[in-house]
Amino acid sequence: MLAAISDTHGTDDHRLTGRTLDAVREADHVLHAGDFMTEPVLDAIDAECDELTGVVGNNDRSAVRDRLPDVATISWEGLTIVVAHGHEHTETALGMLARQENADIVVVGHSHNPTLTDFGGWTLVNPGSYADPRRYQPAHAELDVVAGDVRVRLRSPDGTPISTTTVER
Q1: Which positions fall inside the Calcineurin-like phosphoesterase domain (predicted)?
Q2: Dihedral of CA 19/22/23/24: which sign?
Q3: Is beta strand 123-126 parallel, antiparallel or unpaired with respect to 105-107?
Q4: How many domains does the chain have?
Q5: For FRET with 40, which of 7, 8, 66, 142 sits at 20 to 30 Å CA-CA?
Q6: Which domain holds residue 84?
């Protein structure tokens, strides 16, 4: 399984609880789409993961910015996944990024709004914010292989499914 989280907005710890914490611990790989905010938060999340790929968000302090890229691309289960915070990306720019990286999935944060959108050729995954949802539902994303394809599921921290989509491999 791959887990995607974003917008922790913490100062001291990872703020992970419930199913979100379980998903981060169980995942083979965790993606964080920015706004850890501080280096202790980055370190706390990293300590819970087997493997972490994170990117810089617009609220990350310099110690986090020094350690992470603005955009990261990984290969997972035969798919190419691009991660960016999203604060500098319009829908058009995200589409260009997806094409540039030949991405199947683009993971972004910033808005705190958990969203799955199919753009016909690539899928946008915004895991929302599990710790600071603002006016939206708290959430994270889980990706796993089902019948040969990748199921992307948004879940609340208590584990309740919010929405699901399938990405063909």
Answers
A1: 2-139
A2: positive
A3: parallel
A4: 1
A5: 142
A6: 2-167
Q: Is 83 within 8 Å of 52 (Cβ atoms)?
A: no
Query: pLDDT, tens digit, for every residue of 28-39?
Result: 999 999 999 999
CATH of the domain at 8: 3.60.21.10
State which amino acid sits at residue 97: L
Reported as a single tens digit per residue, the pLDDT across 95-118 is 999 999 999 999 999 999 999 999
Contact between 38 and 61 under an 8 Å Cβ cutoff? The reply is yes
Q: What is the pTM of this model?
A: 0.97
Give the HSE-up count for residue 33: Cα atoms under 13 Å, Cβ half-sphere. Answer: 34
The two structure tokens encoding residue 3: 């887990």
Q: Report which of 128, 77, 80, 88 is spatially closest to residue 106, judged by C-alpha positions.
A: 80
> Own/partner pairs for 79-83, CB < 8 Å, 24+ apart?
79/104, 79/105, 79/150, 79/167, 79/169, 80/104, 80/105, 81/2, 81/31, 81/105, 81/106, 81/107, 82/106, 82/107, 83/4, 83/31, 83/32, 83/33, 83/53, 83/54, 83/55, 83/107, 83/108
The set of residues, in sequence order, having a beta carbon less than 8 Å from that of 54 and lying 6+ positions away, is 31, 32, 33, 34, 36, 42, 45, 68, 72, 83
